[in-house]
From TrEMBL:
<dbReference type="InterPro" id="IPR035681">
    <property type="entry name" value="ComA-like_MBL"/>
</dbReference>
<dbReference type="InterPro" id="IPR036866">
    <property type="entry name" value="RibonucZ/Hydroxyglut_hydro"/>
</dbReference>
<protein>
    <submittedName>
        <fullName>Beta-lactamase superfamily II metal-dependent hydrolase</fullName>
    </submittedName>
</protein>
<keyword id="KW-0378">Hydrolase</keyword>
<dbReference type="InterPro" id="IPR052159">
    <property type="entry name" value="Competence_DNA_uptake"/>
</dbReference>
<dbReference type="InterPro" id="IPR001279">
    <property type="entry name" value="Metallo-B-lactamas"/>
</dbReference>
<dbReference type="GO" id="GO:0016787">
    <property type="term" value="F:hydrolase activity"/>
</dbReference>
<dbReference type="Pfam" id="PF00753">
    <property type="entry name" value="Lactamase_B"/>
</dbReference>
<feature type="domain" description="Metallo-beta-lactamase">
    <location>
        <begin position="56"/>
        <end position="250"/>
    </location>
</feature>
<comment type="function">
    <text>Counteracts the endogenous Pycsar antiviral defense system. Phosphodiesterase that enables metal-dependent hydrolysis of host cyclic nucleotide Pycsar defense signals such as cCMP and cUMP.</text>
</comment>
Amino acid sequence: MKTSKIATLLLTGVITALLILSGCSLEINPAAPENNSTPASTSGGNLRVVFLDVGQGASQLIISPSGKTMLIDAGNNDKEELMLQYMEQFGITKLDTVIGTHPDADHIGGLDAVINHIPVGRIYMPKAQANTKTFESVLRAVKNAKLKVQTAKAGISWDMDDEVHVDMLAPRKSYDDSNNMSAVVKITYGRTSFLLTGDAEADSERDMLDAGTDLQADVMLVGHHGSKSSTTLAFLKRVHPKYAVIQVGADNTYGHPKSVILNRLKQQDVKVYRNDLQGTIEAESNGQKVTFRTER
């Protein structure tokens, strides 16, 4: 009996060990993607707005609590491969919505690569033309994907999912300057909101103010990479953000962000995040508050 009991205990131990090794009785968490980013399909019930580090350019990736996705801009032409790496890093296998805020290369340069490699549900761009190879490449990619460009303009709105609402606040009219033609997007989740401004400058800001647009947001993308042509004091006061993000490249030749803008943000007690200093910046909202994490 003693030998039988020992054999039984040994057999039980072997079976238990095999079960553990096979994962049947032990929960193993998969390795986190680079930068501890959570894949789009497992966003954990939060809204994620990721300000991708594309150097002197702009790109924002939005992932809703249910895993719906939106990409606004995609950096310059030399960031095409980087954009595809970001899509893989964040687990993006489909983009429900793509927005090219305006035709400048530092905003749409990587869009063609993204559209060529990832299925896209719909794309918005303003009625602004550019006689450039970059713009032509994006239009060619759109055509090859059998998409039709929808006009980005004030008054368009949709629900990303049951809890996340998107409003396009600009452009409100046609402008000679392509920067003022920028699509301005507000995203609302619960009590929190994000204002993504592209390169919209003072004229577009003034028209949004004059129209009485609800601009208040917890997080604001500083217009035109921190150029003094954007983020007027009146506009900043109306938005009244707690946080601001500046998408800008290190040691850029434009001198962005300008000191006047940094001082303005400081005087309004706005906490500033910058791609050139902190790499990719992710803002996450649970509908009540926004938290940040940065690459460095």
